[in-house]
Amino acid sequence: MRSWKQRLVPYWLLGPGLLWLLFFFVVPMYFMGELALYSGSLTSGGFEFTWAWSNFPDALSGHTEQIWRSFFYAGTATLLCLLIGYPLAYAIAFRAGRYKTLLLFAVIAPFFTTYLIRTIAWKTILSDDSPVVSALQTLSLTPEGGRVLATSGAVIAGLTYNFLPFMILPLYANLERLDMRLIEAAKDLYSDSRIAFLKVTLPLTMPGIVAGVLLTFIPAFGDYVNAQLLGGTGQAMIGNVIQSLYLNQRNYPEAAALSFLMMALILAIVIVYIRFAGTEAFMGDEDEEGA
Amino acid sequence: MLSSERSDRRATAILAVLIAAVTLALGLAACGGGGAGGGNGGETTVAEAGKAEGELVFSNWPGYIDPGKNGTIAEFEDKTGIKVDYIEDINSNDSFFGKLQPQLEQGQSGGRSLFVVADYMAEQMHDLGYLQEIEKDDLPTVFENILPSLKSPEFDPERKFSVPWQGGMTGIWVDTSKAPEIKSVNDLFDPKYKGKVTMLDELRETPALVMLAEGVDPAEASADEWLAAIDKIKSAADSGQIRRFTGNDYTEDLTAGNIVAAIGWSGDASLIENPNAEWRMPTEGCVRWSENMVIPVGAPNTAAAIAFMNFVYRPEVAADITEWVEYISPVDGVKPILEKNGSELAESEIVFPSDEFTRNCTGQNTPPELDKVNEAWQNVLTG
Amino acid sequence: MSAPARAWAWLRRNALPIYAGLAVAYMLIPIAVIAVFSFGATPKDKLTFGLDNGFTTEYWRTMFSKPELNEALITSLRLALFATLIATAIGTAMAIALVRHRFRGKRLANLLIVIPMATPEVVIGASLLSMFIYYTFALGFTTLLIAHVMFSISFVVVVVRSRLIGFDRNIEEAAADLGAGPLTTFRTVTLPLLAPGVVSAALLAFALSIDDFVISNFNSGTTVTFPLYVYGVSLRGIPVQVNAIATLLFLLAVIAVGLVLFQQRRAEKMAAVQPEAEEGGPIPLPGTAAAQ
Asked: Which domains can be identified in chain C, with CATH numbers?
C-alpha cells in the first residue's frame, strides 16, 4: 500500500507544469475560442459576439489549398528529416565515441545563429546566379524555370534544414539508452544486418521516431517563415494565411476559427498516429507495459 | 485493472470539469474586454506640451534616421537632455497595427510616446480613437517649415494628429543591364520576363499602379475596378509571371540578380548593391505617399514627443536626415542646405521631385468596400 | 583481396561515419556562408552576401559598436537561460510523473501537453497577448519569459519521456537492494542515466528560446530580442555586424563544447591512471561516459 505522501508525489511533480500550461495556454485559448464566434470588423463598427459558428466552415472552405499544401510540405520535410536524421543520430549514439557531445552540438549550434539569418543564408546559397544552382542546372536537377528559389522545393528544403534538430534530438535521446547487447544479439541471430535492424533496432527505437516525427511535423505544418523567405507566389502555407488574417486583414474571428481548425486537424493526426504506432510507444505508461 | 481504469476515467472527468470551470470563470470575467472593438468613444485626448524632459520611447521603421554618435537622435539628446529609446520595430503598417491594437484598445501604447506610420494607417488609428491630438500652437517649428503641399492633406486637414516624417514614391526598379526597356507597369506582365519580376504586397500601391497603367484613376475607382486589377495580378501570380510579393526585401532579389524588375520605393538606392539598378517613374505615373509621426493614447511623455517633432523640422536637422535616408523631406528649405554642402542629392529628382515629374502620380488611396477588396488582395498574396 | 574490393569493404564499414560527416557538413553550410560573408566589405555597411568589395575585418572589430544590437543580444541570452532552467526543471518533473507514476487524470495531462505543440505560433502569441492586456500585465521581459517557458515545457516533456520509456528499472532496484534510499537512488543512479535526455531537452529548450520570433513579437512590448532585432533590420539592410555576431555565438558554443570534452578526457585519463580509485566508486554502467 502506498502512503499518503507517496500518492501525492506525482501531483507535486506535475503541479507546476500543469498550472503554467493552464494559466498561460488554456486560458488564452479560451479567449481565442470566444473570438472565433464573433463577427464584424474593425472598420465597420467593431466586433460582436454573435455565436457565429459559420466562421468555421467559411475559414475551412476558403483555404483548403493552403491546408493541403502545408500537409504536403510538412510531410515531405518530416520524411526527409527522418531519412537524414536517423542515420546521423545512430552514428552519434554508437559510433562517435568521444566526439559524441561535439557532434550533438554541431547539430544544435546552427540554432544560435537565428532562424532568419540561417534562412537568408540559404536564400543566398540558392539564389539564381549562385554556383550551387548553376551546378544543379547542369545536372538537370532544377525544376522548370531553372531556378530553385521561389519554388516548392526551396520551401521544403528550408523546412527540412530548420527542423532537422527537432528530429535528431529525440531520436538520439532514445537511441543512446539502447542496450548494445541487444543489437549484438540480434546480429548473431540474423545473418543479415539489415534484417537485424528491421526486426530489432527499429522497433526498439519506435518511441524516439514517434517523438521525432511529431516534434518535426507539427511546427513545420504551422510554419510561415520558410514560405515567406524562400517561396514565391503559390507556396503559401496555412501559417501564412493565419498571419495574414490576423495582422493584415484584422479578421480576428476568421483567424481564430482557422487556428482552432488547424489545431483540431493536427490533434486528429496525432491521435490516429498514436493508435497506429501503439499507445505504449507514446504514452509510455510502464505499468501497462508490465516491464 | 478494470476498476483502476474506471476510476482513472472518473478522475479524468472530474479534472476536466474542474479545468473547464476555472477557465469559464476567468473567461466570463473577461467577457467585457479582451476582444476588439470600435474605439473608445468620441473623446480624443489632446497631447500635453510642457517642459520636455525625461525619456522618450520612439518606434520607427528601420533605416529611417541617421544613427550613431553624430546622428539626429544623439543631437536631440545633447540639446534637450532627453534620453531617447529609439526602437526600429515597425516593418509594415499592418503588422505593427496588429501587434499594438489590443493595447491601444485599452488605452495603452506599450510605453511608446511616438511612432511613424503611413497616412492611411494614421487615419485609421485616429478614427478608432488610438491617437492623441496636438495643439497647433505647440508645434511652431513644424508649421513654420512644413512644405505647403503637405499642410492640409485630406485625411487630416488641420494636421491635428499627424506630422509628416518622410515621403516617397512607388515606381519600378529596373536592372538596366538585363531589361533596360521596361518603362511601365504593363511591361512587367510581358511573358519574356516570366518569373523575373516582383511586386509589392501593399494593397494601396500595387493594384493602384496596375490600375493607373490601365488608364483607371485609383482615387475615383469603384470596388469592381479594384477587383479587376487584383484579378489581373492574380492570373500573373498563378502563371508564375510574378515571382513573389515582397516587402522591403525586393532589394535583396535585385542585388542577387534574381529579378530584372520590381515595384519598389524611390529611396531604397542605399539598399541595392547593384550598380545597374535604377528607379524609374512609370510612364503612367507613380504612387506618392508619406509617413507620419503620431502620438498614441497612453503616451507617457507627450512633451518630449512634441519637442522632437519641432526639432526635426529645423531645416538643418531635416537636411541631415535627408542626406542619410534619401527620401523626400517634408521640410521646406532643405534643398538649399544640401546644395551648399555640395551634395548630389540636391539635384536628384527622386529626393526633390518637381511637380512636373509627379504630374501623373496618385496618393495612397483606400478602396471602397475595403474589407471585400482587402480580402481579395490577401487571397492573392497567400495563394 | 584486390585493391578495389578492399576499398569497397572499407567504404561499407565506414559508410555510417562518412554519412554522418556529410550530414553534419550539410548542417553547417549556412554557418560557413554566414562566417565568410562577415568579412565582406560593403559600401553602406549593409549585409549583401557578396565578396566583390573585398575582404575586411572591420565588422568584427566594430562588432559591439551598435548598442541596440548588444542590448538585443544580452536580452536574448538572459531570456534563454532562465527559460531553459525553468522549463527543463518543470518538464523533467512532469515527464517523470507521467512515465513512472500511476495517478488519476494521466490522459488529460498528456493531452494538455500535446496541444500546445499543435498550435501555430501566431495563435499562441496573439492569444497570450490578449490575456496579458486584459489583466493589464505590463509587457516586457517577464511576459516574454512566461511565453518562452510555456512553449518549451511540452518539448522538454516529450524528449525526456522518450528517454524514460523502457528505462531499465532493475538498476534502480539493485541500488535499492544495496541499501540506497529513494533520494540517493535518484541522485546517483537515475539522474546520471537520465542526464543525456535531460541535456538534450535543455539544449532544445535553449535553442527554441534564442530563436523564437513570432511569439516574442507579440509579447515583448518594447523589449527587443535578437531575432526581433534581426527581423527589424532584415527588411532594410542587415548590418554586417549581425553576421559577425552570429558567427561568434556559434564559435562560443563550439568552444564551450570543446571545454566539456577536454574535461571529459582528463577525467578518463585520470581514471585510467588510478584504477584503485574505481573500486570505491559507483559501478560504471554500460552506455555512460565512464565506461567508454
From this structure: 1-66+239-254 (no CATH), 70-238 (1.10.3720.10)
* Total count of domains within chain A: 1
Question: Identity (one letter) of the amino acid at A251?
Answer: N
Q: How far apart are CA A39 and CA A35, in angstroms?
A: 9
- Is C68 within 8 Å of B248 when comparing Cβ atoms? no
Hey, are the CB atoms on C226 and A114 less than 8 Å from each other? yes
Long-range pairs for B305-308: beta carbons < 8 A, 24 or more residues apart: B305/B47, B305/B56, B305/B58, B305/B113, B305/B114, B306/B47, B306/B49, B306/B52, B306/B134, B306/B138, B306/B139, B307/B52, B307/B80, B307/B82, B308/B56, B308/B58, B308/B76, B308/B82, B308/B84, B308/B114
Residue A31 within a domain: no
Q: How far apart are CA A274 and CA A268, in angstroms?
A: 10
Cβ proximity of B204 and B221 under 8 Å: no
The whole-number pLDDT of residue C287 equals 46
Q: Which domain holds residue A76?
A: 66-235
E strand or H helix that includes residue A93 = helix A64-95
**SS3 sequence, B16-66?**
HHHHHHHHHHHHHHHCCCCCCCCCCCCCCCECCCCCCCCEEEEECCCCCCC
Percent of chain C predicted with pLDDT > 70: 80
Is the minimum CB–CB distance between C197 and chain A shorter than 8 Å? yes
User: What is the rounded CA–CA span in Å between residue C285 and residue C270?
Assistant: 18
Q: Which of B14, B87, B105 sits opposite C222 (nearest CB)?
A: B87
Q: Which three cell numbers stand for residue C27?
A: 548542417
Which residue in B184, B161, B169, B223 sits closest to B364, CA to CA?
A: B169
Mean pLDDT across the stretch A162-183? 83
Q: If you write DSSP's letter for every residue of C188-254 in order, what string do you get?
A: IIIHHHHHHHHHHHHHHHHHHHHH--HHHHHH-TT---HHHHHHHHHTT--BHHHHHHHHHHHHHHH
Distance, CA of C18 to CA of C26 (rounded, Å): 12
Q: Is A133 a member of any domain?
A: yes
- Does domain B55-161+295-313 fall under CATH 2.40.50.140? My reply is no
Question: Residues B153-165: what's their mean pLDDT?
Answer: 90
Cβ atoms of C213 and C124 within 8 Å: the answer is no
User: Of A38-52, C82-96, C262-276, where does mean pLDDT reach its minimum?
Assistant: C262-276
Question: What is the fold, at CATH topology level, of the domain defined by B168-288+362-381?
Answer: D-Maltodextrin-Binding Protein; domain 2 (3.40.190)
C-alpha cell at B363: 496618393
How open is the CA angle A217-A218-A223, to the nearest 5 degrees? 95
| Residue type at B229 in one-letter notation | A
ipTM > 0.90 (yes/no): no
* Predicted pLDDT at A53: 83
Determine contact: C147 vs chain A, CB below 8 A.
yes
Give domain limits for chain B.
55-161+295-313, 168-288+362-381
Nearest to B58, CA basis, from B72, B39, B78: B72
Q: How many CB pairs under 8 A join A and B?
A: 120
* Average pLDDT taken over every residue of chain B: 83
Rounded to two decimals, what is the model's pTM?
A: 0.78
Amino acid letter, residue A170: P
Contact residues on chain A for C157, CB-CB shorter than 8 A:
17
Phi, then psi, of B319 in degrees rounded to 5: -65, -40
Cα–Cα dist C41/A276, whole Å: 55
Neighbouring subunits of B (3+ Cβ pairs under 8 A): A, C
Equal fold, B55-161+295-313 vs B168-288+362-381: yes
**CATH code, domain with A205:** 1.10.3720.10
Report d(CA A200, CA A186) in Å as an integer.
Answer: 7
pLDDT band at C239 (very low <50, low <70, confident <90, very high): low
Question: Model confidence at B19, in pLDDT bands (50, 70, 90)?
Answer: low
Radius of gyration of chain A (CA): 23
DSSP letters of B100-122? Answer: HHHHHHTT--TT-SEEEEEHHHH
